[in-house]
Amino acid sequence: MPNAAKLFAALGLAALGWIISDMIKPLVPFSVDFGYFNYVNAVIGVLIGWLFLGPRAGEGVTSAINNGVTSAVAMVVVGVLVQGTNEMVRLSFARRYDSPIEAIAAIFEKSIDYGLILWNLQLILTLLGGAVAVALVVEMAGRRWR
Length: 146
Hints:
Strand content: under 5%
Radius of gyration: 17 Å
């Protein structure tokens, strides 16, 4: 059922996903065509916000902070897996893998490589601080519009 908390969570995490995507681009050490990178991460933010953060609104400030941090971690995990899968598909069309099992294993290898790029203090603080701020706004929206 749509409600204000889900809407605020989806929009807030989408904006956070976009901002974090822009912060990641200078950290990539190699030349990459990012394509729909920002859009994909914003959609991941919408999904995490709508399906995870929004329904948990109204449980108190402590729960909101915990849900915000958990949402940030979920966004990162889903994001690196999606980007790893995208890279695996690109490489599989170039016939870099000999078997489907090798291609599936490459998803996790690429995801770990992308996850290591994210070890940046400014990026981590922005992600966690933004997610907690969004979660507090979602908590207020959940209390205000039930």
